[in-house]
Amino acid sequence: MIIKAPEKHLTDQEFFSLIKFFDYIVEKKPIDDGEEKFSISDLTLGQEEAGHVFNRVFQSGQVCELTVDIDKGYKFDEQLEEVREEAKKKPKKEQEELVKIINKIKKGHAKLEEIGTVSWIWYEVYSHIRLTPSTYQIPPEIEKILRTEMDKYLECFINDKLDVGKKNYYRFEAQKKMLIQLIEEGKKIALYGNKFILRVRIDERGVAQKMPDFSIIQTAYALQKLGYLKVVSVWQDLEYPKKTFDNERTDYDKEPSRYISANLILEDIFVDEINNSYKKNNPSNIFEKFDAKRGVLKFAGKDIELSKKGKETDAVLLLKTLLKEKTSEWKHNDEILEDWGYNDEHQKRVPKNKVYFAGQKINNAVALKTQIEDFVECNTTKARINPKYRKVDE
């Protein structure tokens, strides 16, 4: 990314700017909220001056020879005239160059390098620039450099080879455990499956308030490199308080609460590791046995009745079928109904969502005794016993 010190541990604030720029310019990921262009504020995490963020990505943008559009916005013309006056104070050669850039900016377009030049007398110019990734054609050799440097940094992060300055950071395996902890505490997989958003409150420096040595963004991208997950996007959320005497109105004059959000898609290998972590931390919440004749499930130290007087209900039939599968593979409805004795013709006349409702009956019965609501994972097309509740050797 042309990281200035690739051997040094970046803060999440620094990494956020670089990886957002990389995702937009190199990976061509969609810009947040469906926009066509992005601004310096889109690369900002916490509360940081625009000039610092600009300088962080400037060298990368310079070697890519990026141009920017100008959003004239508030007080643009007034600022422009002030800058013209400031340019007159410079030596003639410098003045001519500045005037040329100022005229280009007035027309609505300039090179990123020219923005860097004029920013010495016009700090507010950063708020006016907009970058449009779809119009950029990065030379292959430059793209290779950017990818190699980002990859090298993440490799060092994973292997705990980064130097620290004035702040501690967890080693990578501890970082991964912290991310797993966030997922488990939020019951993300149980509630949303393998696609969800993680959200952590941060301070003005972009540091997680409750876990200051945890680098959530860098950990997510490192796990993506290892094939554990996909990072769809990361962004900052701001929540402003309500007005003191009017709870219906937002008070934008007060300091907002800041959050870092990450849209993630977990791969099966990571879900399995999270399930194993759950088993380690909750050894009693494991399937023990099922007495099909009595319709009684032994789970989490409880006897859970799925039928009265041993009646063969759909819940009993479903659990019997799912227990035949010794792996974490799903059983699809047609397989399940076939195991229940329904041929193809009979399956066409089966009540809609018969298997789904059987799964819900099991989960309701389990939840009443254990407060666990996801013993069976099921939707309208497939079902399985949640892998995190099965013994490792099953």
How would you sum up this structure, described in words?
The protein is elongated. The chain contains 14 helices and 14 strands. The strands form five sheets. A three-stranded antiparallel β-sheet has the order 2-1-3. Helix 3 packs antiparallel against helix 4, helix 6 (140-158) packs across helix 9 (216-225) and helix 7 (172-185) crosses helix 9. Helix content is 42%, strand content 17%. The longest helix is centred in the middle third of the chain and has 19 residues, at 140-158. The chain folds into three domains: 12-145, no CATH class; 147-276, no CATH class; 283-389, Orthogonal Bundle (Arc Repressor Mutant, subunit A), CATH 1.10.10. By secondary structure, the chain is α+β, with helices and mostly antiparallel strands. The model has no long low-confidence stretch (mean pLDDT 92).
In short:
The chain has 394 residues and is of the alpha+beta class. 42% of the residues lie in helices and 17% in strands. It has three domains: 12-145, no CATH class; 147-276, no CATH class; 283-389, Arc Repressor Mutant, subunit A, CATH 1.10.10.
Name the features:
3-stranded antiparallel beta sheet; 394 residues; Arc Repressor Mutant, subunit A
Q: How is the biggest beta sheet arranged?
A: 3 strands, antiparallel
Low-confidence stretches: none
The percent range for strand residues is: 15-25%
Q: Regarding quaternary structure, how should these chains be classified?
A: single chain
Q: In what order do the strands lie side by side in the largest sheet?
A: 2-1-3
In DSSP terms, counting alpha (H) and pi (I) runs of 4 or more, how many helices? 14
Instruction: Please give the alpha-carbon distance between the first and last residues.
Output: 46 Å
Q: Any idea what the radius of gyration is?
A: 28 Å
| Principal-axes shape call | elongated
Helix content: 40-55%
The structure class reads: alpha+beta
The helix-strand sequence is: HHEHHEHEHHHEHEEEEHEEEHEHHHEE
Tally of domains: 3
| Overall pLDDT score | 92
Total beta strands: 14
